[in-house]
Amino acid sequence: MGTYKYSAEFRADAVALARSWGRPVSRIAAELGVNHETLRQWIKTAENAERPEALTESTRDAEIAALRKQVRELEMECDILRRAAKYFPGETNW
Predict the structure, then answer these.
(1) Which uninterrupted H or E stretch holds 56?
(2) With 80 as the cut, is the pLDDT of residue 42 above it?
(3) Fewer CB in a 10 Å sphere around the end CB: N or C, the chain?
(4) Distance CA 37, CA 89 (A)
């Protein structure tokens, strides 16, 4: 089963169609030849893009994740240095 790429224009039209019609998303997706979960994700993405606070939340979450990763790396480096200092006790100024 291959992956299909849809143009941004097709996605925007599909989202607009799903919003304007009062029919279920699964039926609209079937008529367009798209998986219903794919269409739901497009709609969700469009809704999140319309909310300005969503962008700041995702940016903040990404920054927090990056900082947590950096803290883990620094703690690991510090631990390695502590272990190495045990082997060379007279050569350190700690």
Answers:
(1) helix 52-87
(2) yes
(3) N
(4) 61
Burial of 36 (0-12, 13-18, 19+ CB in 10 A): middle
The alpha carbon of 27 is separated from its chain's Cα centroid by a whole number of angstroms, namely 28
Tokens of residue 72, six digits: 């883990």
pTM confidence score: 0.51
Q: How far is CA 55 from CA 4, 19, 61, in A?
A: 27, 22, 10
Element (H, E) at 84: helix 52-87
